[in-house]
Design a protein that fits this description.
Length: 86
């Protein structure tokens, strides 16, 4: 199961962005806030605390590809354009 989840945690973003690992996502404070929000929503639905790890796995599978594409596309564009300028 861990290998399957690990494969799902790598995403190819817009403009040829490099893969983003689960660990890299979890170092971003914006991602942590999104997961906390997801944790609250999903815990309310379930009627009990589902736990951060389960919420993180669920959020990463369902929403991280779109998040990476939206929030990290500019980062990859800037890094690739700065390389061209050199």
């Amino acid at each position: 199961m861990k290998k399957i989840l690990s494969a799902l945690f790598n995403h190819q973003g817009a403009m040829g962005m490099a893969k983003v690992s689960r660990e890299e996502l979890l170092r971003d404070p914006r991602v942590i806030e999104e997961i906390k929000r997801h944790l609250w929503i999903e815990s309310e639905k379930a009627g009990h605390d589902i736990g951060f790890d389960k919420a993180a796995d669920d959020w990463i599978i369902k929403f991280s590809a779109g998040w990476v594409k939206h929030y990290m596309a500019d980062k990859s564009y800037k890094s690739s354009s700065s390389k061209k300028a050199r």
